[in-house]
Design goal:
Elements (H helix, E strand, L loop, with lengths): L1 H9 L13 H8 L2 H8 L6 H14 L1 H10 L4 H17 L2 H4 L7 H14 L1 H6 L12 H5 L10 H6 L2 H27 L3 H7 L12 H8 L3 H24 L8 H13 L3
Helix pairs in contact: 1-12, 1-16, 3-4, 5-6, 5-12, 12-13, 12-15, 12-16, 14-15
Length: 270
């Protein structure tokens, strides 16, 4: 799992080329990220709602690293589910926005610090009550029904890695899964879902390890088409990956540093 996530992240080099005119919408999205909205609105009551919506969307995407960290801190799955719910309810109703520091600029860093502080609040843990019918931030039934991911963390890793490492690796895996999901949706909208499903597993495979002849026979298209489409998928995937990372930093210039950090965290596990 770690090597797959590492390849996906490390295969996204800095983008130096000027964007095409057709990419204007994506460029605007890249410049105005969800986390930059949170930071810019943190001290402005008039735009608090916009910041809260952006923060909520980020949290709904990146709850899995929080859940994994809480589990690694020694809590049972059931307790970790409750604590994860409580944490995000507290986060979205509390003062995280006012504590957000634009100088730090990383949603990942702030979220990990926040959950560590939350777990260290012994009084909170002691008085925590079951919520019953109140807000459920994560749809656990849907999550538990998900098929195991090729980017999941398993047994021995969960038992031996430090909580901080599990958080970072789970974070990196979430970035990758978000990018792959978006790429799949794009392909489906263009009637290429079968092509994506077959070729996506080769996004992280070296060219010499791919049997283009077998893929050609399986998909019923010439090898030249396979090579062209796979190249296009890799290019598009890398662009989407950078957009996903950009959503969690304050400045697009920080994207490469964030990718390098996640790659270093993954490399330390191998």
């Amino acid at each position: 799992m770690v090597s797959q996530v590492y390849y996906y992240l490390s295969s996204s080099p800095p983008v130096k080329a000027e964007p095409a005119a057709s990419d204007a919408l994506n460029l605007n999205r890249f410049q105005t990220t969800r986390w930059s909205v949170v930071l810019s609105c943190a001290q402005t009551s008039e735009t608090q709602d916009a910041a809260q919506r952006a923060l909520s969307e980020l949290c709904r995407t990146y709850w899995r690293p929080v859940f994994a960290l809480i589990c690694r801190r020694g809590h049972s799955v059931t307790d970790a589910q409750d604590l994860t719910q409580d944490f995000f309810v507290m986060l979205l109703k509390g003062n995280l926005l006012s504590l957000a520091d634009p100088a730090r600029g990383r949603f990942r860093s702030l979220l990990r610090t926040a959950v560590e502080n939350f777990l260290n609040d012994k009084q909170h843990l002691a008085r925590r009550q079951k919520r019953g019918g109140t807000l459920q931030f994560v749809a656990w039934d849907e999550w538990m029904a998900e098929a195991p991911s090729q980017l999941s963390i398993y047994g021995q890793e969960l038992k031996t890695w430090p909580p901080e490492r599990i958080f970072d690796v789970r974070w990196a895996a979430t970035v990758v899964k978000q990018a792959l999901r978006r790429l799949a949706e794009e392909c489906e909208s263009r009637g290429r879902l079968r092509m994506f499903t077959t070729l996506s597993k080769y996004l992280s495979v070296e060219r010499m390890e791919i049997s283009y002849a077998n893929l050609s026979a399986s998909l019923g298209v010439p090898e030249t088409v396979i090579k062209r489409v796979l190249h296009q998928l890799r290019v598009r995937y890398r662009a989407i990956l950078r957009q996903e990372v950009a959503q969690t930093v304050a400045n697009p210039a920080d994207v490469d540093d964030e990718i390098r950090y996640l790659c270093a965290a993954l490399a330390s596990t191998q």
